[in-house]
């Protein structure tokens, strides 16, 4: 089970970044996104809408208090942070674990998160987007195999094209 | 020369996503970001501020009309779009080129962009963030070597830690 926890969310301001985190988690092979912080029905609805149209079994859950999610997790915890150890040094060790809670911070991450996490992992030690950090982490974790993932029960599918757009509609 | 063109920008609404695109471009080895659409001084200032503190020679430029940027480009053009050909099938061909304009769309991309681009490339054929798409593309292009990139003249540097934060200050 691969779960992404989006730490903290402010209605309005974080709408698009949180949505991009969730879309990345789904497209790149995670099972679930857990949202914490302020409850934002529009984020939840838009993710559910994507799953309904584009298929797969990705789910979204909300829990205001992130400590309950982290405290109740049975498995390893990976916190993505620019202050952590380089992904390229730790990924082969992390790949051994199939149950991962991947924590993606927002603006200000409480110090406890660093302590509660099994791994604090950085994607470059530079200011970067939490969205890119998640994408590169997942791409390294799955060694690229996630790019060809199939999504069952899709109502919409893209047929890749060199130029232009081709969409296939209808149920599997 | 590796340049990212952010196609279209709406002041306010796109502030954070455009900033995340630019930070990803810088952290993952590009030379420049070109912004088009509405002029947003706060995005430009925040990117310049990151370069000043964190080092390197990344630049940011603004040109309202994206067609002038694309039309004047001497080199190959890669447009990242969910409708394109899978990155994993085309990347070894693209890696041969050292001059690339990488186009990252916003909400609605004009049809001409698909025609003017040398490659239309998808990162999964699923709804995903343009920020993740750029990150995975660059990670594939550089085969991971971008993760260890050094930034000269940095006033701030992170010393990677398993727990906690360690920052080094001062000039190179």
Task: Provide a brief overview of the structure.
With 172 residues, chain A is of the alpha/beta class. In chain A, 34% of the residues lie in helices and 23% in strands. In chain A, helix 1 runs parallel beside helix 2 and helix 1 runs parallel beside helix 6 (130-141).
Task: Please give the structural blueprint.
Two copies of one chain form a homodimer.
Chain A: E1 2-6, H1 15-27, E2 32-35, H2 41-54, E3 59-62, H3 66-71, E4 76-86, H4 87-94, E5 100-104, H5 111-116, E6 119-122, H6 130-141, E7 156-158, E8 167-169
Parallel strand pairs in A: 1-2, 1-5, 2-3, 4-5, 4-6
Antiparallel strand pairs in A: 7-8
Helix pairs in contact in A: 1-2, 1-6
User: What is the average per-residue confidence, as pLDDT of chain A, rounded to a whole number?
Assistant: 95
How many angstroms does the end-to-end distance of chain A come to? Answer: 25 Å
Beta-strand residue fraction of chain A = 15-25%
Q: Count of DSSP helices of chain A? A: 6
Query: What spatial order of strands do you see in the largest sheet of chain A?
Result: 3-2-1-5-4-6
CATH fold name of chain A, please? Alpha/beta knot
H/E series of chain A, N to C?
EHEHEHEHEHEHEE
- Residue ranges of chain A: pLDDT <50 for 5 or more in a row? none
Find the CATH superfamily of chain A: SPOUT methyltransferase, trefoil knot domain
Tell me the name of the CATH class of chain A: Alpha Beta
Could you state the oligomeric state of the chains shown?
Answer: homodimer
β-strand number of chain A: 8
By helix and strand content of chain A, what is the structural category? Answer: alpha/beta
The most extensive interface between chains reads: A-B, 54 and 54 residues
């Amino acid at each position: 089970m691969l779960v992404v926890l989006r730490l903290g969310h402010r209605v309005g301001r974080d709408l698009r970044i949180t949505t991009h985190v969730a879309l990345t988690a789904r497209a790149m092979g995670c099972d679930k996104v857990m949202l914490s912080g302020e409850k934002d029905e529009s984020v939840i609805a838009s993710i559910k809408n994507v799953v309904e149209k584009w298929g797969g079994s990705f789910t979204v859950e909300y829990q205001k208090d992130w400590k309950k999610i982290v405290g109740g997790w049975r498995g390893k915890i990976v916190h993505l942070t620019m202050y952590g150890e380089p992904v390229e040094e730790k990924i082969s060790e992390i790949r051994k674990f199939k149950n991962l809670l991947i924590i993606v911070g927002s603006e200000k991450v409480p110090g406890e998160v660093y302590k509660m996490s099994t791994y604090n992992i950085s994607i470059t030690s530079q200011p970067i987007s939490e969205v890119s950090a998640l994408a590169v982490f997942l791409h390294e974790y799955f060694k690229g195999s996630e790019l060809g993932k199939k999504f069952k029960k899709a109502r919409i599918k893209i047929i890749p094209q060199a130029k232009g757009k081709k969409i296939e509609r209808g149920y599997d």
